[in-house]
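Researcher: Re-running this chain for the archive, since the previous output was lost when a drive failed. Same request as before.
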Amino acid sequence: MFFHSTGQHVVSAGDSIEGSHVPTAMTQLIDEPVIALFDGLPQENHPYLQNILMVDDPDNYAQNYITSIRNHGTSMASLIAHGDLNHNTYTTTRKIYVRPIMKAVMDFNGELNESVPDDILLVDKIHIAVRRLFENVNGEAVAPRVKVINFSIGDLNRVFINAISPLARLLDWLSYKYNVLFIISAGNHYYDFSLDESFDVFASKNITDRSKSLMKYVNGESHLHRLLSPAESINSLTVGALFADFTSFTESAQQILPCDSMLVDPASATGKGVNKSVKPDIVYYGGRNTIRKKNPTTNSAIWRFPHSYEPGILSAAPYTIGTKKESYSSGTSNATALITHEAAKCYDIIDSLVANGCEIDSNYYALLIKAMLAHGAEWSEDIFEAYASLLDDRRKASDTVFKYFGYGFPDMERAQTCTKKRATLLGFGSLKDGEADVFSLPLPFDFARNKIFRRLTLTLTSFVPTVTNRQKYRAMQIWATLEGTKSKWNRKDIDWQAALRGTLQHEIFENNKTEVWGEDDCLSIKVNCRNDADSKCILPVQYALMVSFEIKEDIDIDVYARIAEKVRPRVAPNP
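Model: Regenerated structure tokens:
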């Protein structure tokens, strides 16, 4: 029951398109990797991947792994290195460590394909592979500075229904032990559509009405769309697929788009997670797919499966002289790899802060990256209304919509940059049961004379120990509270109780009330720790905190400069 895990995106073998989106090449890459890819074996000599990959294949999976079937690993490596080739704005500055965990196997049709081999336990393989990264096992640790591991593989035979899979438990333990972040795909569920209407009737509707029909159908089938192992892992960042990409696709009579862009991909696995925690954590570009008529005599719909032409996410495809270099695909694997691409950028940002004098312990890099990846996430009003309309009781909407969207779609620029109107602060630490840290956010502004719209975004991440034989599972809980407020801040989006059930707390507060506020007044963010599943646990829990304060753009106040002026004297290093 633990075999047959496969990559989580849709792509056809050996059918790619002309290479016309050559990504920007880095003149010199740093040899020591911080991003790892556990996947199929990529094509190392692909024109888009030359000198970027550090392949470690101690099991010799490369033997018989012919180029034409190296689809998933090649695509994931390309997306991590360059992002979507239709939207290439950043290329990794470091080599990517690759450990093949899929290999060429014979399928039921007698054809070679790539999947996790059935002569191993994947749990054992991942355990050995991660130890090899960080420990001196029969030699030196192969990549001890790795902070993020991309895992775009899911097990269709292990759907999450309350019982946590062995692989998810392992990843939670490895995250805590080695301070490493696993970025995991939520999983895909591809199936024949069974809509109450024919393909022709569905195709005759406008895109808004199709979206409504499809959302209603998927909501009714949500019990069949649950997360695939190991997406329920609580310490990991689980990524769902948004039905969106950077192509301009035109429908035909044979192929139509099933719904509008920026909805959750109908094939993307949905939550909730362990003890109704937020899963998936976020959603990101997964690429669009189309549906077509099943066959000329049957007026029912089916996914275009597999596919290599647009719409979708564009990445490198297996290539030999005289063939083509690129291919389109869709699915949660793409979304996961693109988030890992952003994680590489986040690492560079943190590294630059350290180079400019910030004292950040490398043990907190993975947690800070996790916080940065989620910090810009939110639901749009249109999205909330669309999914809330499916519920009989709208009061439950904020505690239900997150099973599709998690904390939402992250605006990476909001987390990776500051502006004149927005300041972002980082904090980190380690706590045991009963301990707490208090962070003060100085707000040297006069809110008494002006009705200023202001927003506070708080993101708290942690790697916690777990108790595998108890239903609560999470041994310790880390959570943050907003204190020292003079007026009520209204929560936006997710229900606050749901935000406290996992290891990622992401909340948005808004306030536009006038109030007397002195030059030296502060908001306080208190980070708390207590035992949860294990009342006797004395282990320390590391955490990372990101807090952003911003005001409306049309008010002439330099938020960044005034907060920075107050913060710098407090955090000046000791002589």
